[in-house]
Backbone:
């Protein structure tokens, strides 16, 4: 069965048990986060072979993250432990809106993290090279190149044709890219982000993005306009609150969002992305890929965090 490698930072999420300013929050729920790690776990849970190439600190958080991958059947052999740099984390600040819903603000504590030291060498450790040689697909996002210049250099290599390098990566593999626009990681570098992330979108084989992220970064969230801007990727998926539109070459499919009682929105976008990839690898029809994506997203939305102890509890 095909192997998917997910390349990016695993994080610890600390989510307060009560809403309100952080200065008033005494207790926090700890879980696994990181878009690419969520995708790996959702893939493995859906029966697709998945591995993560990444770095964690030599600390309790890093050991927890690695153990979570292993507990969910994700290959963690290419997750390097950095003896010096810490595992990155984010803290969520919850605000109760007047209508009773909860809004969350993310505070990142990840500069100088172990994963910020991801680099082209990270793709060439014996473990990573072994996995890349076996990979059908490498999945990454717009978050990874924001981490550092070296992480970006590694990501650039995944998107460049093997012939263009004197030290090519093992392959061939297809590349999957989920835009995951995080303005907080690109402050003051928005133009650079726009150029770089559009370039990744143009070069990937499978591209996924939310309409809101595309609108904010590229000026449009309209699926047909985005398809006109990015005709090259075989698959392009644009998600909206009310449903998703997917393209496979000239084919177009649309599926309304599944109506489900929402218990937890955390990680639903990543579960959706994983479901679509699993569908593509299983060679389902385009409508079938969207159905699988919605199925995994719905499972994430309707499962409480405690049931999965963070497995899908991200965003
Ligand atoms: O997609 C969920 C991510 O936003 C979350 O896991 C945190 O990876 C993360 C990030 O860098 O924002």
Residues:
């Amino acid at each position: 069965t095909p192997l998917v490698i997910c390349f990016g930072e695993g994080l610890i999420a600390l989510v307060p048990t009560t809403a309100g300013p952080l200065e008033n929050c005494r207790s926090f729920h700890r879980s696994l986060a990181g878009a690419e790690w969520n995708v790996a776990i959702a893939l493995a849970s859906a029966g697709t072979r998945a591995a993560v190439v990444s770095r964690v600190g030599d600390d309790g958080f890093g050991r927890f993250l690695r153990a979570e991958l292993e507990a969910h059947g994700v290959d963690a052999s290419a997750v390097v432990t950095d003896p010096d740099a810490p595992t990155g984390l984010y803290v969520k600040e919850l605000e109760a809106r007047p209508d009773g819903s909860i809004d969350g603000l993310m505070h990142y504590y990840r500069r100088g993290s172990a994963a910020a030291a991801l680099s082209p060498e990270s793709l060439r450790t014996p473990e990573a090279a072994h996995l890349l040689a076996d990979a059908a697909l490498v999945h990454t996002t717009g978050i990874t190149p924001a981490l550092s210049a070296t992480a970006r250099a590694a990501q650039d290599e995944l998107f460049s044709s093997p012939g263009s390098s004197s030290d090519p990566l093992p392959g061939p593999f297809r590349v999957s890219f989920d835009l995951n626009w995080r303005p907080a990681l690109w402050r003051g570098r928005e133009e650079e982000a726009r150029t770089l992330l559009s370039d990744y979108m143009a070069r990937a084989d499978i591209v996924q993005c939310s309409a809101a992220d595309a609108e904010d970064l590229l000026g449009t969230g309209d699926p047909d306009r985005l398809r006109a801007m990015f005709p090259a990727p075989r698959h392009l998926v644009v998600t909206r609150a009310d449903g998703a539109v997917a393209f496979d070459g000239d084919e177009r499919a649309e599926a309304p969002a599944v109506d489900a009682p929402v218990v937890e929105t955390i990680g639903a976008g990543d579960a959706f992305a994983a479901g679509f990839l699993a569908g593509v690898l299983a060679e389902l029809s385009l409508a079938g890929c969207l159905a699988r994506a919605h199925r995994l997203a719905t499972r994430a939305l309707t499962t409480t965090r405690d049931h999965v102890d963070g497995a899908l509890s991200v965003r």
